[in-house]
Amino acid sequence: MARHPSTCSTPPTRSSSSAPPWPRRIDWWAISLVVFGAGGSIALNIAGVGPGAQPLDYGVAAVPPVASLLAFGALMNQLYLLLRGPAGAPVDGTAKPVTEPETAPVAPAPSTAPVLVPPAPTARPAAPAARVPK
């Protein structure tokens, strides 16, 4: 059974054109923060259920922190894939430049009768009469 490349302890061999520009390493500090943070959250949720609860109550209490841990993992995977770039893209600056797509010429709109705009008034309107409050 093939393992996912991110779970391997040693990186797979790669050709020089697809190697990432940074060295591949495991960040144990980040892993320990996630493990202790998620573990503490799960433990505190379960401990907060209280004595005399049914076993299902303990399982239900563990669901929100486990769901947030899985969502965090999915988000980090998406960010990794986004920042990694397309698979097989060269990282040494030899990528082909992006060209603008060719578009078909647009036919001009059919001519219509000219629209006559009335001239703007030149006289100012009369000011309203002032009223004195009583």
Commentary on this structure:
- The protein has 134 residues and is mostly helical.
- 37% of the residues lie in helices and 0% in strands.
- It has helices at 28-47, 55-84.
- Helix 1 (28-47) runs antiparallel to helix 2 (55-84).
- The longest helix is centred in the middle third of the chain and has 30 residues, at 55-84.
- The chain is flat, with a radius of gyration of 34 Å.
- The model is unreliable at 8-16 (pLDDT under 50).
Throw out a few tags for this protein.
single chain; 37% helix; 0% strand; mainly alpha; flat; 134 residues
Itemize the secondary structure elements and their pairings:
Blueprint: H1 28-47, H2 55-84
- Return the structural class: mainly alpha
Uncertain regions: pLDDT < 50 for 5+ in a row? 8-16
Distance linking N and C termini: 95 Å
Helix content: 25-40%
Strand share of the residues? under 5%
Total helices: the number is 2
H/E series: HH
Shape: flat
* Radius of gyration from the alpha-carbon trace, in angstroms: 34 Å
Question: What is the tally of beta strands?
Answer: 0
**Mean of pLDDT:** 77
The major sheet is characterized as: none
Short description:
Helices cover 37% and strands 0% of the residues.
